[in-house]
Specification:
304 residues; alpha/beta
């Protein structure tokens, strides 16, 4: 007898302080809830939603995807882009969908949002899953610049740019922007050997309506660094506190994600614990696309 999985999705724009918050749900609301928290600032959930949300729901999870206020499809000219505002958005989701607890699945910058939220509201969180998530910003920036120095010896153009970036205020939007631009220009976010499946997932996304709605608010990082005092942080102490009070932490990273040093990967592995950690080969920053099957397998194993 064939197993038939019935999965439903529902789109809603929730009114938050006079603005619409884009939210979409996948799966059965009776299943365990996962809230995906995207990267940024100036990010959105379109890639995850296009490629992975439904497949995660097919494994028996109730998946909620949203774009933070002022980012992506949640347009808001009055957004302040602070962590407090991001927490308000998450709490609106809990209230609207009558959630008492959920697992937070956090990618990239979303890891900082999810970690600080869990530290503030631990009773709301079943588990925290860090997926290619930032946790020590300055270590990441240092690694990007130092590794490029080594790989570009004799390249005066790149070395001059690195020298320029190193002189910038490390708590500025410009410093962050240039660090990640250098990383992107040197393929730090790309898997080294794309597979047939990963190529198709990326191609399907680029041909989809989701890609057409891949909205990036270029002012978001500028306003974040203007309005948020905690703009270059290390959350390892917060993660230890979360673990100590009994909220499970899981960490899954790409072995070829160029924005994390070996030392950082060892730190997050030791913090999460051997059985709560996975490092995926031939995989970079967007691990839910690069190695989707392995990503989904680990999420199911950990959370089921």
């Amino acid at each position: 007898m064939k197993l038939v999985i019935l999965s439903f999705f529902f789109i809603m724009s929730v009114f938050v302080n006079g603005q619409n918050l884009y939210i979409k749900t996948y799966g059965n609301k009776k299943d365990k809830t996962i809230i995906f928290i995207h990267g940024g600032p100036s990010g959105n959930s379109t890639l995850f939603e296009s490629t992975t949300a439904q497949k995660l729901a097919n494994q028996g999870f109730y998946v909620l995807v949203y774009d933070r206020r002022g980012e992506g499809r949640s347009a808001d000219l009055n957004a302040t882009f602070t962590y407090a505002e991001a927490f308000q958005d998450i709490n609106v989701i809990y209230k609207k969908y009558h959630l008492t607890k959920a697992t937070l699945l956090a990618h990239s910058f979303g890891g900082l949002v999810a970690t600080l939220y869990t530290e503030k509201y631990p009773k709301n969180v079943n588990a925290l899953v860090l997926a290619g998530a930032l946790f020590s910003q300055q270590e990441t920036y240092d690694h990007i610049l130092n590794s490029l120095k080594k790989s570009h010896k004799g390249d005066s153009k790149t070395l001059n740019k690195i020298s320029y970036v190193e002189k910038l205020d490390k708590n500025s939007a410009g410093y962050r922007k240039h660090c990640f631009e250098l990383a992107g220009d040197n393929d730090y976010f790309k898997m080294p050997n794309p597979t047939k499946k990963s190529k198709k997932l990326y191609a399907d996304y680029e041909a989809s309506q989701f890609f057409k709605n891949n909205i990036r608010n270029k002012n978001a990082p500028l306003l974040f660094y203007k309005n948020e005092k905690r703009n270059n942080i290390d959350t390892k102490t917060s993660l230890k506190k979360i673990k100590d009070i009994g909220v499970p932490i899981y960490a899954i990273y790409g072995k070829d994600d160029g924005v994390f040093s070996t030392s950082q990967i060892n730190d997050i592995k030791n913090l999460a614990g051997e059985n709560h950690f996975a490092l995926l080969n031939n995989c970079s920053h967007y691990l839910f696309v690069d190695q989707q099957d392995k990503f989904l397998s680990h999420i199911e194993k950990w959370l089921k």
